[in-house]
Amino acid sequence: MDNPLILNAEGVNKSFAGFKAITDLNFYLTEGELRTVIGPNGAGKTTFLDLITGRTKPDTGTITFGALTELVPLSEHEIVRLGVGRKFQTPTVYTEHTVFENLLLSLEGVRGVWKTLFSKTTSTDVDRIDEILKTINLGSRRTDLAGSLSHGQKQWLEIGMLLAQNSKLLLIDEPAAGMSDDETALTGELLLKLAGKHSIIVIEHDMVFVKQIATGRKVTVLHQGSVLCEGSVDAVQNDPRVIEVYLGR
Ligand code: ADP
């Protein structure tokens, strides 16, 4: 039997000044699933993530998180607190703080200002951060300034910050952009390691990377704000509708 749903978007529409960016979008994700979303520029991928995180509100439709929580009425902050974490394409780490401190700040962030002011870092926090450092392969960079990390390492740190925030659903926008081949492969390994424990939506263009993370999983193709098709990497790559969308008539 399939795992329960972590995300269910039904009949979602969003227009900007009369332009339909998202049209009757239906999309669901099961707990622990790693889903790659592809689609040409302007397909609505970023807008879709904006709608999940509350950055943009739909004109119509519902977006349910877990069994019952309707996300549309909630603020961006409330959605983060529920466990929805987003990583944008450009890494935004605190360059003047150490790798450890960046993770600690994310851990503190979810506790709220009052608790942060009156609480001290406990050994449980340190253990948790060390565990995350191991997961993101940055254990050896623990006390280095985040600003000294490579582009790829900053991306992994940012994924670690989402883990420190207790994100159950990770929304990751083009994680391999600007990375070397080695870093790209390691990023793929990291995402595969996180799948299962976390539910993940990855937006990606690089088809070599898509093959690495999506083989044996479902890929979604967005086009003109709707799901054009879903299926295995090979099935969507060979789908005449997808070929037409990418290559034009
Ligand atoms: P993708 O991420 O797949 O490239 P986007 O979600 O960024 O696509 O954009 C989908 C469409 O919606 C594009 O045509 C874009 O120009 C339009 N769009 C997105 N955001 C806005 C906005 N704030 N105002 C006007 N048009 C927008």
Automatic annotation (TrEMBL):
Domain of life: Bacteria
Residue ranges annotated for the ABC transporter domain, each copy included: 7-249
InterPro entries according to UniProt: ABC_AA/LPS_Transport, ABC_transporter-like_ATP-bd, ABC_transptr_urea_ATP-bd_UrtD, BCA_ABC_TP_C, P-loop_NTPase
One term of GO molecular function: ATP binding
Xref: CDD domains: ABC_Mj1267_LivG_branched
Keyword tags: ATP-binding, Nucleotide-binding, Transport
Claim: Nucleotide-binding is one of the keywords in the record: yes
PROSITE patterns in the cross-refs: ABC_TRANSPORTER_2
PANTHER family (alphabetical): CONSERVED COMPONENT OF ABC TRANSPORTER FOR NATURAL AMINO ACIDS-RELATED, HIGH-AFFINITY BRANCHED-CHAIN AMINO ACID TRANSPORT ATP-BINDING PROTEIN
Name assigned to this protein: Urea ABC transporter ATP-binding protein UrtD
Native source organism of the sequence: Prosthecobacter algae
Gene name, Swiss-Prot/TrEMBL: urtD
